[in-house]
Amino acid sequence: MVTGSAGFVGSHVTEALEAAGHDVIGLDLRSGQDVRDPALLDALLPGVDAVVHQAAKVGLGVDVSDLPDYVSVNAYGTAVLLAAMARHGIGRLVLASSMVIYGEGRYTCPAHGEVRPGPRTVADLDRGRFDPPCPVCGEALACAVIGEDAPPDPRNAYATSKLAQEHLAANWARETGGRVAALRYHNVYGPRMPRDTPYAGVAAIFRSELEAGRPPKVFEDGRQLRDFVHVRDVARANLAALAAPVPAGALRAWNIASGTPRTVGELASALAAERGGPEPVVTGAYRLGDVRHIVAAPDRAEAELGFRAEIDFGTGVKEFAWS
């Protein structure tokens, strides 16, 4: 069963599973099916041998008024699903997790080695000091790749709710002997990405601006590093995760990323160039819940899942710009 089967990522996952010969039952809120409905789950789960859980409220959100929805859909919804899986003896879960659980990425200071910067302050952001300083000496830090064993440090409601999903799934695994493959998606983009909504990803927001003839508005200085991974690669990772080497009673996590970081400004410029402009505008604006840099180490996924992203940034952006 795939939850969120009609959504952006879920629809591609469903197609990949069906193409590989799996029989897929879909559940999606767009069809009036809510993962928080125990009776619905009891009707759908008999005969299911694995669940691929994509259903979620995504994005940074608008303000604190979103907190109840993030908790209800992502945390409570996952808890209801896990309880139903236990009732029906289903022992394998592929969980759509996220790199947002890491908070700020990994940084090193020339004087103090590896450090974990705190949240960026309003005063620094207002001054245009976007890179987090060393928490010890206040000097500039160098960004480094982050691996799956980094401690979590969620910095917004969405991130907190995604980490809650992982903790709940790990609780379920320990108590039932189940296996959880947690896929920490980095910045997913591609066809069917939601548009014209504050919960969409930055790639969709840029494309919508260009479609309307407006320049993409790039926050901060545009130098924020992200790893943009194509949705069809993410779907392949889900397929691989069904046979992931996870011990009974455990959760194992993998970064799902391209391995080639790009700046947000590069993404905006590439989309504008593909569509013939207008050129992006760097605004200096910011959102408190955003992190500065997050760059993935994708080696574990390649070693243990046999997964490596195949769609390069240039090819993916050309397709996405017109999809």
SSE blueprint:
Elements: E1 2-3, H1 8-19, E2 26-27, H2 38-44, E3 51-53, H3 67-87, E4 92-98, E5 106-109, E6 113-115, H4 122-126, E7 142-144, H5 157-176, E8 179-185, E9 187-189, H6 202-211, E10 217-218, E11 225-226, E12 228-230, H7 231-241, E13 250-256, E14 262-263, H8 264-275, E15 281-282, H9 299-305, H10 313-321
Helix pairs in contact: 1-7, 3-5, 6-8, 8-10
3D architecture notes:
The chain has 323 residues and is α/β, with parallel strands linked by helices. 35% of the residues lie in helices and 16% in strands. The chain contains ten helices and 15 strands. The strands form five sheets. The chain has a six-stranded parallel sheet with strand order 2-1-3-4-8-13, with helices on both faces. A three-stranded antiparallel sheet has the order 6-5-7, with no helix packed on it. Strands 9-12 form a two-stranded parallel sheet.
Instruction: Tell me the radius of gyration.
Output: 20 Å
Order of strands across the main sheet: 2-1-3-4-8-13
Looking at the structure, what is the overall shape? globular
- Strand/helix succession: EHEHEHEEEHEHEEHEEEHEEHEHH
Largest sheet: 6 strands, parallel
**What is the number of E strands?**
15
Q: Approximately how much beta-strand content do the residues carry?
A: 15-25%
Q: How far do the termini sit from each other?
A: 27 Å
The proportion of residues forming helix, as a percent range, comes to 25-40%
Secondary-structure-based class equals alpha/beta
Q: pLDDT under 50 segments (min length 5)?
A: none
Give the averaged pLDDT, no decimals.
95
Number of helices: 10
